Amino acid sequence: MAIYLIRHAESVGNVDGQTESHASIALTELGHLQAQQLLAQLPKADHVIISPFLRTLQTAQPLLDRDQLTAEILPIEEFSYLSDVKCRGTTLSQRKPWVDAYWHLADVDYVDASDAESFRDLYQRVKALFTFLDREQQRYLDQNLMIFSHGQFLQLFQMLMTEPQAVSAELMQAFRHNMLHQPIKNTEFFIYK
């Protein structure tokens, strides 16, 4: 039995669609199909954890229905480093100048606005998931836990799982490089330890 970490299926935000808030981005038609297809790759779940964002619930829903479960919500949502208010009604390509400016700073403590978070905040949320999983790991020796999260959250989780390290500008830059050159694909998953 195992702990599976799974990125959500394709969302409107992934295909340069206009979005209203970080949390409300829905799956595309293809995303719903990917969520259905994911069922063939995953064993029976004993417990499911999702982020508070709609796209993780929509990705997990076929599994929840199949295995007759209700998801637990944890703060494993996407890295919201840009202001939600500023991004409202924009597309990925419209946000690109803001994205580029944020990553050019490489400041782990920079916060875009009161409704955004710093890279250090993301790091602390990822570390909190490690703490949770280490505490719960014995429970999943004979059960399957499915965790549905997001590309950036899972990218940092995977990096720290491979090489634990402190938060730093170097980690932030390596993280950005991996996001651009080795992104975790929609519905891609890996097993914890």
From TrEMBL:
<protein>
    <submittedName>
        <fullName>Histidine phosphatase family protein</fullName>
    </submittedName>
</protein>
<dbReference type="GO" id="GO:0016791">
    <property type="term" value="F:phosphatase activity"/>
</dbReference>
<dbReference type="GO" id="GO:0005737">
    <property type="term" value="C:cytoplasm"/>
</dbReference>
<dbReference type="InterPro" id="IPR013078">
    <property type="entry name" value="His_Pase_superF_clade-1"/>
</dbReference>
<dbReference type="InterPro" id="IPR050275">
    <property type="entry name" value="PGM_Phosphatase"/>
</dbReference>
<dbReference type="Pfam" id="PF00300">
    <property type="entry name" value="His_Phos_1"/>
</dbReference>
<dbReference type="InterPro" id="IPR029033">
    <property type="entry name" value="His_PPase_superfam"/>
</dbReference>
